[in-house]
Backbone:
């Protein structure tokens, strides 16, 4: 359901991974931790344990609700899974600068969040 | 006071029931498009109890050849009257 | 004559899952509004009450339903789920048949809910 056609390719472990114009995976099944690493490099993000926790929460969220969350519900889901200390938008913005919900969804191999601009 | 707008005929659609259910005691109802069929004497019974608060849009009645066939209970308004009704209401709610 | 509304946005859902995209579009509108910090209430009327039945699945051709989205409402802090009592009766359903916690509204309750909200969107 994700998107349309391939706009460009991401090189990852000698494989070409199709991305849409906004950098989201065209085929969500292409995702692997290595793909997340390669996508993170594009954003100049070095994935730490704290990043991976968030990506896990996102992938769980998508498995459950079939949608990528906007910022508010993402913060809430992180709070529920990882504790209130981490369930804050500042924590997310520090890990994934810019539009955190979108960047994190991209690295987690989800479609673009539907309900944020 | 809210203005409710119905554009479906009570002869073919149950939407009128939802509009009636959503109406408060002093709310008004305006019939437009196919909804104006509800202004006919045979159909106006669906809107029983709305005396003085039931309106139908003149232009839509006219284009359907129904102008002049309305029940006496129904107040016919033109587009300017529609605008006035909208202005008098706090909000409008469309039922379609 | 009438008091100031105390609640924010009311999204009225009058269509069941599948069949048309009205339910999905209504839910989308509610989620966008909630993501931007509005307080959203949902009112299920008419056929819309069937959206709250448990055990729904994808369409015959594999189309996504709205089940997962309804489960997600809580994550968007959408907790006020109002249901038209008359519609439940029309479909032979009870409040207990609904898979989320809902508040049944009598006929006057529905009118009051409309009066109570600053903004109303019908789907």
Residues:
């Amino acid at each position: 359901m994700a998107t349309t056609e391939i706009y460009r390719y991401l090189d990852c472990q000698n494989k070409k991974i199709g991305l849409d114009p906004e950098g989201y995976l065209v085929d969500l099944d292409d995702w692997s931790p290595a793909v997340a690493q390669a996508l993170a490099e594009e954003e100049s993000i070095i994935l730490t344990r704290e990043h991976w926790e968030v990506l896990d929460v996102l992938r769980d969220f998508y498995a459950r609700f079939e949608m990528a969350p906007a910022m508010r519900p993402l913060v809430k889901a992180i709070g529920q899974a990882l504790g209130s200390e981490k369930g804050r938008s500042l924590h997310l913005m520090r890990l994934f600068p810019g539009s955190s919900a979108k960047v994190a969804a991209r690295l987690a191999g989800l479609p673009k969040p539907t309900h944020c601009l | 006071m809210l203005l409710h707008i119905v554009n479906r005929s009570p002869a073919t659609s149950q939407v009128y029931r939802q509009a009636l259910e959503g109406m408060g005691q002093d709310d008004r109802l305006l019939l437009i498009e196919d909804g104006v069929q509800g202004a006919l004497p045979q159909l106006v019974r669906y809107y029983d109890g709305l005396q003085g608060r039931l309106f139908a849009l003149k232009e839509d009645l006219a284009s359907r050849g129904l102008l002049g066939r309305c029940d006496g209970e129904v107040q016919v308004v033109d587009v300017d009257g529609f605008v006035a009704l909208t202005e008098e209401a706090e909000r409008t709610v469309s039922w379609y | 004559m009438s008091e100031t509304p105390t609640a924010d946005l009311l999204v009225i859902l009058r269509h069941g899952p599948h069949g048309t995209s009205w339910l999905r579009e209504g839910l989308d509108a509610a989620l966008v509004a909630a993501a931007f910090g509005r307080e959203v209430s949902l009112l299920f009327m008419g056929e819309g009450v069937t959206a709250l039945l448990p055990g729904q699945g994808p369409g015959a051709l594999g189309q996504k339903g709205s089940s997962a989205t309804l489960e997600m409402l809580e994550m968007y802090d959408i907790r006020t789920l109002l249901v038209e009592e008359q519609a439940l009766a029309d479909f032979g359903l009870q409040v207990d048949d609904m898979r989320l916690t809902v508040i049944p509204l009598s006929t006057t309750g529905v009118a009051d809910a409309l009066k109570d909200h600053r903004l109303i969107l019908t789907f």
Q: What stands out?
A: Chain B touches chain C through 18 residues (CB under 8 Å). The longest strand of chain B covers residues 2-6.
